[in-house]
Amino acid sequence: MTRRRFHGSVLALLAATATPALAQEAHLSIGMAAPITSLDPHEDSNSPNNATSRHIWDSLINRGGAAENKPQLATEWEIVDDTHWRFKLREGVKFHDGSDFDAEDVVASLIRARDKESQAFASYTRNIAEVIAEDPHTVVVETTVPDPMILNSLSRIRIISSDYAEAGVAEFENGPAAVGTGPFKLVSYTPGDRIELERNDAYFDGPAQWSKVTLRLVPDDGGRLASLLAGDLDLIENLPAEGVTRVEGSDKLKVVRGQSTRLVYLGMDVARDESPFITAKDGSPLGSNPFKDARVRKALLMAMNREAIVDRVMQKNGTVAHQYVADGFFGHSGKVEEVSYDPEGAKALLAEAGYPDGFALTIHGPSGRYVNDSEVLQAAGQMLTRIGIDTKVEVLPWSVYSTKYSDGAYSLFLGSWGVNTGEVSNPALAVVAGRDADKGTGRYNGGGINVPEINTLLDQATATLDEAAREPLLQQVSDLTFNDTWLLPMHYENVVMGAKSGVEFTPRSDKYTLAYEVHGSTE
Amino acid sequence: MMTTLIRRAIQAGFVVFAMTLIVFVGVNVIGNPVDILINPDLNQAERLRVVQNLGLDQPLWRQYLSFLHGLSQGNFGDSFVYSKPALDVIVERLPATLELALCAMVIAIVVGLPLGLYAGLYPERLSSRLIMTGSILGFSLPTFWVGLMFILLFAVQLGWLPSNGRGETAEFLGARWSFLTGDGLAHLVLPALNLALFKTSLILRLTRAGVQEVVMQDFVKFARAKGLREGRIVLVHILKNLMIPVVTIIGLEFGSLIAFSVVTESIFGWPGMGKLIIDSINLLDRPVIVAYLMMMVVLFVSLNFIIDICYTLLDPRVRLDGKG
């Protein structure tokens, strides 16, 4: 709501200063930091693909910038019973090729996304048992189990025209199948280079401000920055840290900041009795795994000067984290103790736990996967050394690291989770819940965390539809995880973008850059 | 000549075959593509389904055999990342790389050869010394730095040329090319110059060294004594005799321009194949890596063959079948 009001006021301001009104010619060029892999909206689920598909297609539910559920192609919905949801569809909506949108399209799209061989959207569609069109403007979604996350899931799945339910990837990329109901129509797609879009004047929520939008794929940091400086691009994602001063110093450009939901944390091996990368300082076996002791884990966290890491290493492109999600997101708990930097206290705790002289440790992390990941890990290593833990740092390419860390190869490792649902159950199920192949929990639980209370709470939360009853369960998950320091929360990555001074955009927590939400002027 | 061609083709076949083996084993050693490609939210059953769909549940030798089987029918397999035939993924980026490499090579030859001739014929002149000093800069400055400087100077400060991307394209021979439109040409200038810089210096220095060697030889002295015009001596007697090493280098460098212009392509956001191969290695997209490397083997073998034919044209003593 606040966002809408904000945009409203920007528009009012624009009208008052007699800058171009809505339906005029205006061109916007956005520099995307990661290339898309496909224009088929159900083929692959990664943020650049999903952000791009939101320009052309709509979903039943509109996921807002702060992860709230709002109507889009569904105008209202109700819970029929534990496993049935009824959605009223918006009437009078047309696809870009002029055909009418109705319940058949919803059925075709949800089933197509569920049954695609790539299974990219399986985490959203796995609970969909059946989709029934009751009449042309009503659908009922039947789930296999009570699924409290179904609205979020439906916000992820784009609704394509049922005419193209059988179409393959090529038909989407070369045009004919790429017709949606969204604010922009596809003009052309050049792999590795750009996507050209034009305004859908008949968009149900009002036409976009931009008659023509170019999404440029510029993964190279230097190239993206240079294009902004040269005026070729109006808005760029991931403004590199080296460019911040330059952009701030220019009166034609500005830095746009926002907080994302990507949590960066350090995980610890808390399962094994002896951990492979922990030894006594002389290299002999230590005979125990110190990370099994909650006092040692807390000492590690107290050793971290996270303010300094965020300020210097991350160049303010992060915000110190204390739990899964920041204040305002679903499942954030007020009862999580915020541990601050205290090296002396950390040493005392280590001594109390029986390690007065510390031990030797090798920590691992990826390089180039997260913002300044290897630098963050090096800083963390130095801070651990300062409390008496002799720490060596090893970084590996993501293609090597990704398998090993989730399989639990390391003693202390850098991990990260983009909380794309904006609530606690998503990261907790993947990273902290006990590993269970059948339930699909704990896939990225590389430390072997297995706390029965947390597992039980998560089981309850994933089966509770009532949001009011669900939130306290998730808050308890936050309390248990972080008050016992099962993870060392480091920071949330910030969204840092560069823009021309006249461009107005509020970064979204999912990091999608949506031209429809960009306003202002590119002059 | 025909027998040579066939022999070369057989050799190429062996190299390609060895390469597919190396890539298959190599990619598996780096890491498991499954962990990179599959959405982290998937549960075990869904994961298994994708793995089976990609054929990664089979033992490596069986994956390799089914790859060979597909290959015999001209099918390189589908890209893991782009979900379409690997060859299509590569071929749709081929025109961009080709035109960039060609432009850079033309610039390098047109600038490097005359300057090298000049510097070799008149080594004592101040202008020759300047050219030689310039060429040292040309091949010692790192490409990425020069590229960024070009962008800063011509795009950011002066605003004459676009900084990034391929610009407008026009259709020709079924592919889209930049050099046919004004906007496309403007986009092409900086990356082509950037790529050409090193090659120009290389050709220049090679030519100069060649000239200095040939100039001292008896037949040049004799031609002078016979009273031939200087222009004819330079163009026919000197140039032709120093071309063999130059042609070799041009051929090989052209290959490397096509295959490995990753740095320039990244800095200038040029959607070519060099960037594709690096991305594919990072994502362990094996079908694309294999198909790409196979194409490159064929490319280099063909280039070498063309170079050999050029030798016979330049030097009548050279025989391809080794009989003469």
UniProtKB/TrEMBL annotation, chain A:
CDD domains, per database record: PBP2_NikA_DppA_OppA_like_2 (cd08498)
Tell me where on the tree of life, at the top rank, the source sits: Bacteria
- Kindly name one Pfam family recorded for this protein: SBP_bac_5
**Keywords associated with the record:** Signal, Transport
Q: What are the residue boundaries of the Solute-binding protein family domain, all occurrences included?
A: 70-427
Q: Extract the InterPro entries matched here.
A: Peptide/Ni-bd, SBP_5, SBP_5_dom
Against Gene3D superfamilies, the record matches this protein to:
Dipeptide-binding Protein, Domain 1 (3.90.76.10), Dipeptide-binding Protein, Domain 3 (3.10.105.10), Periplasmic binding protein-like II (3.40.190.10)
Leader sequence residues = 1-23
SUPFAM superfamilies, from UniProt?
Periplasmic binding protein-like II
Localization per record = Periplasm
Chief location bin: periplasm
PANTHER family membership? OLIGOPEPTIDE-BINDING PROTEIN APPA, PERIPLASMIC BINDING COMPONENT OF ABC TRANSPORTER
State the family named in the UniProt similarity comment for this chain: Belongs to the bacterial solute-binding protein 5 family.
* UniProt-recorded name of the protein: ABC transporter substrate-binding protein
From TrEMBL, chain B:
Which InterPro entries does UniProt cross-reference here?
BPD_transp_1_N (IPR045621), MetI-like (IPR000515), MetI-like_sf (IPR035906)
Q: Which SUPFAM superfamilies does this one have? A: MetI-like
Residue ranges of every copy of the ABC transmembrane type-1 domain listed in the record: 94-307
Q: Which UniProt keywords apply?
A: Cell membrane, Membrane, Transmembrane, Transmembrane helix, Transport
- The entry's protein name is ABC transporter permease
Q: Which organism was this protein described from?
A: Salipiger mangrovisoli
Q: Main location per UniProt?
A: membrane
Q: Which domain of life is it from?
A: Bacteria
Name its cellular compartments: Cell membrane
State the membrane topology: Multi-pass membrane protein
Q: Which residues cross the membrane?
A: 12-31, 96-118, 130-157, 177-198, 242-263, 289-314
- What PROSITE patterns does the database record attribute to this sequence? ABC_TM1
Q: Indicate the family of this protein.
A: Belongs to the binding-protein-dependent transport system permease family.
